[in-house]
Write a sequence for this structure.
């Protein structure tokens, strides 16, 4: 009888602990703001007279599972009249469901043909509570 009572208490404690752990690991919606610098000297911004080999937009990815399994979480337009080194390019993602913990984010420059710059060139880590 004492063993059965102890087993019930341990099971109850385990279930409560599992519930609390599960509650802490529940995904939640977040909006992420990114700010970065980009040098348009190498690859210019797209413009009416520049339509090839130019930057059309910037894409934001969660690359936590690896670059091959990246998840696109947003895009940022190229600033107007962007030339040379532009500091403080900033944008926000749409609300996105994130698991809690550390996430590795990357920004790429996308060309009109869909190709993108190397995601390893612009990476940051964010902590999702």
């Amino acid at each position: 009888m004492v063993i059965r009572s102890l087993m019930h208490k341990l099971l109850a404690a385990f279930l409560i602990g599992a519930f609390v752990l599960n509650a802490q690991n529940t995904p939640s919606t977040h909006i992420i703001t990114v700010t970065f610098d980009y040098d348009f000297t190498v690859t210019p911004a797209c413009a009416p007279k520049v339509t090839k080999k130019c930057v059309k937009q910037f894409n934001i990815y969660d690359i936590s599972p690896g670059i091959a399994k990246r998840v696109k979480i947003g895009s940022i337009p190229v600033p107007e009249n962007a030339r040379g080194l532009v500091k403080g390019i900033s944008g926000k993602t749409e609300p996105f469901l994130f698991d809690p913990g550390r996430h590795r984010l990357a920004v790429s420059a996308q060309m009109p043909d869909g190709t993108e710059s190397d995601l390893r060139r612009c990476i940051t880590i964010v902590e999702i509570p």
Remarks:
- The longest strand covers residues 101-110.
- The domain at 28-128 is CATH 2.60.40 (Immunoglobulin-like).
- The mean pLDDT is 83.
- Residues 24 and 100 are 8 Å apart (CA to CA).
